């Protein structure tokens, strides 16, 4: 049986080893080029009241960790063990890819598009890997984003889902939100995020941020508006991020890049590169 400490060391090792060694974490046309750098890993107590608050902050349909695991296991929430935890990770985008996207002004670079498409396939593989190693040890586990019950919706503010990886990462103490709606971690804003719910005994990570926007220079002191300048869709202003404009650009105007780059979704990501928060927490450096 694991203690909280040995459980933490075990799952951190599994995630780091998979990121370092999986052939899926390589660019399709350059097997020496990793898609992601070493991950950040955090944990949250599934009973944290913050998860209930997401039903108000995001939508009533947003699942708590207990609800998400119960759905995956075809059980009632009350049938699950008393203590549940959430594992959350950040996959920082490789420096070569970030540098390539810095040069762009209206479209993502090919490396960035490959990261968005093949990188998320790797992220799914990591989700499946974490679930499997936990189940092999006799623990309950599920990755909500790859479950059939994962849903995406749209309202007057734009798209949202019933399991927000960024909000899960915030609960796990991995960072805070930005003016552009991104998530600024100790390794910056250019990354992908994943999570798994389990009954493995894990210690909750400390949330050091004073507010949900503490890592964003704009909210800290008003000194930065670089993501506004970088957005080719005009979707970011001092009042925040217009998800509808953003989606219309990334999934509409940039649709032709799917054929050009041979990917299903090229993304955009210009607001995540050539900005002070690209690969660091800029507030901590001041």
Explain briefly what this protein structure is:
With 286 residues, the protein is α+β, with helices and mostly antiparallel strands. It has helices at residues 4-21, 49-57, 65-73, 95-102, 110-136, 165-171, 217-221, 226-230, 243-253, 257-261, and strands at residues 26-27, 30-34, 40-45, 85-92, 141-142, 152-155, 158-161, 175-177, 183-185, 191-198, 236-237, 240-241.
Pick out its properties.
286 residues, alpha+beta, 4-stranded antiparallel β-sheet, two-stranded antiparallel ribbon, 10 helices, 12 strands, 36% helix, globular
Description:
- The chain is α+β, with helices and mostly antiparallel strands and 286 residues long.
- It has one domain (4-272).
- Helix content is 36%, strand content 17%.
- The chain has ten helices and twelve strands.
- The strands form five sheets. The chain has a four-stranded antiparallel sheet, with helices on both faces.
- Strand 11 and strand 12 (240-241) form a beta hairpin.
- Helix 1 (4-21) crosses helix 5 and helix 4 (95-102) runs antiparallel to helix 5.
- The longest helix is centred in the middle third of the chain and has 27 residues, at 110-136.
- It is globular.
- The protein starts with a helix and ends in a 25-residue tail after the last helix.
């Amino acid at each position: 049986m694991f203690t909280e400490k040995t459980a933490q060391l075990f799952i951190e090792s599994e995630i780091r080893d998979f990121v370092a060694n999986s052939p899926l974490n390589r660019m399709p046309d350059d097997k020496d080029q990793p898609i992601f750098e070493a991950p950040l890993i955090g944990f949250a107590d599934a009973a944290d009241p913050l998860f209930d608050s997401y039903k108000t902050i995001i939508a009533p349909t947003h699942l708590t960790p207990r609800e998400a695991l119960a759905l995956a296991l075809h059980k009632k929430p009350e049938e699950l063990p008393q203590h549940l935890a959430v594992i959350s990770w950040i996959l920082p985008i490789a420096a070569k890819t970030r540098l390539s996207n810095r040069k762009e002004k209206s479209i993502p670079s090919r490396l960035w598009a490959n990261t968005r498409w093949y990188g998320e396939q790797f992220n799914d593989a990591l989700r499946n890997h974490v679930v499997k190693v936990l189940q092999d040890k006799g623990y309950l586990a599920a990755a909500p984003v790859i479950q059939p019950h994962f849903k995406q919706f749209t309202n007057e503010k734009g798209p949202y889902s019933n399991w927000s990886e960024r909000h899960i990462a915030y609960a796990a103490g991995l960072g805070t939100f930005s003016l552009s709606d991104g998530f600024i971690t100790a390794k910056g804003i250019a990354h992908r995020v994943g999570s798994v719910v389990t009954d493995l005994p894990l210690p909750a990570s400390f949330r050091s941020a004073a507010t949900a926007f503490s890592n964003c220079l704009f909210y800290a002191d008003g000194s930065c508006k670089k993501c506004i300048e970088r957005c080719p869709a005009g979707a970011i202003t001092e009042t925040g991020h217009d998800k509808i404009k953003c989606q219309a650009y990334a999934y509409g105007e940039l649709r032709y890049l799917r054929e050009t780059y041979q990917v299903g979704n090229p993304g955009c990501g210009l607001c995540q590169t050539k900005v002070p928060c690209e690969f660091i927490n800029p507030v901590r450096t001041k």
